[in-house]
Every structure is written in structure tokens, then in C-alpha cells.
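Hi support team,

I submitted a single chain yesterday and got back a structure, but I'm not sure I'm reading the C-alpha cell output correctly. Could someone confirm the output below corresponds to the sequence I sent? I've pasted both exactly as they appear in my results page.

Thanks,
R.
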Amino acid sequence: MKKLFTYFMQGLVLVAPLAITAYIIYLIFDFLDGLLRDQLEHWFGIAIPGLGLVLIFILVTLLGLVGQSIVASPFKFLFERLLERAPLLKVIYSSLADLFSAFVGKEKKFNQPVTVQINKENNLWKIGFITQKSLEEIGMKGLVAVYFPHSYNFSGELYMIESTAVNPLDMPPAEAMKFVVSGGVTRVN
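Hi R., thanks for writing in. Yes, this is the structure output for that exact sequence:
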């Protein structure tokens, strides 16, 4: 009976990550497709699975195209003036815009993984990502900003660290992020 349970647990370890990933993808697909499902079914008289997702993808892509063109500049200027009058909204909007551009924008910020010894006595190290190579503009000469993502979570902490205490990590940023977020469980290629 103990061996049977061991085989079951090994099978669960093999199947669970795949099943959970597939389920999350299904939930995301179903949610995005469902945003327009009722309206599209009303227009066409038939439910076409995936049409809402395709339409959302096309609309977001077109929005990105318009956002980069000259046509959108006056609206962007007007929106920025509106944000100037609402400081709380400006903080929220600019923080989210910076976060998204750090991952997918032209100026990706999480592209230099590093190791930092955080406790010399016990030889403890953390993996992080340099987000600012100089902090002179805020009066912290010689320091760099290093972001440390949390394991099994999409949050982290920012530390100001002596640039001499930061060691570049010779690995792709995506692999470093995957290693940290998985709690060091994933294999490094």
C-alpha cells in the first residue's frame, strides 16, 4: 500500500504542474473570450469560441499602433494634463505604466541579473535585478537599485546597495527570474 501511495505522489508531481498550467491558461482564455462572448453571439446568432479573444487581441494591437502614431499625441497630452490635476491617479498610473514597461516596454528593466551577499557572517546571498545603475539623482552616490522578486509571488523588494557589493550573474534574465520566483526549485539551463 505504501508503494502504491509513493507511485501516486510521483504521478501527481508529474501531472499537477501541467494540469494547473493548462487550467490557468483555460481560465484566462475563457475570461478574455467571455468579455465579448454575449455581444458577438447576439450579432452573429452563433457562439464562435475564441472569436472574442481574437477580437480583443486585434483591438489591443490596433490601440498600440494608434498609441505610437502622431494621431494619439494630443490625447496623450490631454490625459497627462488630467493626471497633473489628480496627483493620486498620477502616482497609480505612472507606477503601473513603469511596471509594465519594465517587463515588456522598450526599456526593459529586469535585464541584468545579479547576486548580492546580504549577510557576510552567514554567507547568505540573494538574486536580484539591477533597475537603476546610478542613484546620484536622489543623493545616493555609489549605490545601485536592485530589485529582489519574492519566490512564489509576484511582488518583491527594492534595496539601495553599494555598487561594489553587486556581482553580475552570467545567466539570461528570464532564467534568473524563473529561478527566483520558483524558490530555487527550477533548473537553471
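A quick pointer for reading it: Residues 2-104 form one domain. Let us know if anything else looks off.

Best,
Support desk
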